[in-house]
Amino acid sequence: MTKLFEPITVRGLTARNRIWIAPMCQYSCENKDGIANTWHMVHLGSRAIGGAGVIICEATSVSPEGRISPWDTGIWNEDQVLAWQPINKFIKEHGALSAIQLAHAGRKASIFRAWSGDGAMTETDGGWQPVSATAEAFPEYNTPHELSTEEVYQMIDSWVSAAERSVRAGFDMVEIHAAHGYLVHQFLSPLTNQRSDEFGGSAENRARFLVEMVKRMRAVIGEMPILIRFSATDYQEGGFTVADCAEVARWCYEAGADLFDISSGGIIAGVKIPVGPGYQVPLSKELAEELEAPVTTVGLITSSEQAERILQETEIDVIMIGRLSLRDPYWPLRAAHELGVEIDYWPNQYVRGTYPSD
Ligand SMILES: Cc1cc2nc3c(=O)[nH]c(=O)nc-3n(C[C@H](O)[C@H](O)[C@H](O)COP(=O)(O)O)c2cc1C
């Protein structure tokens, strides 16, 4: 048996393998209403048929102004809850678990999707003023409104309500998007948080927004696993570091989080990210050694042999794939064949297509 195809249990919930689909925005709510539709059903459903262990659905905003673009999915109302239900039912009928990535873009909100325009969307374009921990804009984006202390508490309420809706929408897990320079990361990083209230200053204060959110979510979602995606480094002097990430992850674990999904970058423009095969593995490896909770890795993992080797040679628990899965939605089935693993979750309809027979 390989490690890749060994099941893994997180807070009592077992995923059939350790190939998980990374969250990927589809920008496909054509009505700009945040309601998932047939695109999401076919896109996510294909990856369940394709044998993934867990499918992390795209960054889904907890409130309208938290969307990266007007075409993002949302979970701030009941129509959105209803739309996710059949999608989650389908994913689960095909043996995968479904996670939602709860998100708020903060000062990186209100931009065009790549195929509809370029850069920031002004109010005349149908965009809006973003909100953030800071009043400083991300280069060439709209200038945000700095949330008052009271508004930060209201923002935590929005995240907690979105988590509660996610339970009713039929998700198995929630992931908090605390990476890539979006709102939670804007609180965590000293580069974007110069606040003087209880949400700024010390490391503990900068983490308060996230830790409070985790505590309150844990109280309303029962035993549903909580995942957190971090950018483990800002790649910039004076920014958030792997050591900071380990400390914040420990606080989150104590507050009720279960697994840490490690990514990097995104808080400021112009930094050099050392992109290459498995480029974020060293970050995940270090955190997996530091933390009690399971840790995942993602980023240019493109072969079954590479994926298996990462799990064999480190304490990392799970591999996530993003772009590979866009090219090849059934890649987990292919990887099982390549590694000589017999799996019993080829869809019945597709058994005649299994690799070894002809
Ligand atoms: C089309 C696309 C959309 C993405 N959307 C998200 C997202 O919604 N949330 C997120 O945390 N990362 C997002 N990412 C980053 C991926 O989850 C992943 O971390 C990154 O692509 C590196 O993994 P890969 O080399 O396997 O693609 C996106 C990436 C792509 C290609």
Strand order of the largest sheet: 3-4-5-8-9-10-11-12
**Portion in strands:** 5-15%
- Rg estimate, integer Å: 19 Å
Could you say how many structural domains there are in total?
Answer: 1
What is the third-level CATH name, the topology? Answer: TIM Barrel
User: Would you report the number of β strands?
Assistant: 12
CATH H level, superfamily name: Aldolase class I
What would CATH call the architecture? Answer: Alpha-Beta Barrel
Structural class: alpha/beta
How many strands, what sense, and barrel or not for the largest sheet?
A: 8 strands, parallel, barrel
Unreliable sequence segments: none
**Helix share, percent:** 25-40%
Bound molecules: flavin mononucleotide
Number of helices: 10
**General form:** globular
Q: Could you report the average pLDDT, rounded to the nearest whole number?
A: 97
C-alpha termini separation: 25 Å
- The ordered string of helix (H) and strand (E) elements is EEEHEHEEEHEHHEHEHEHEHH
By CATH reckoning, the class would read Alpha Beta
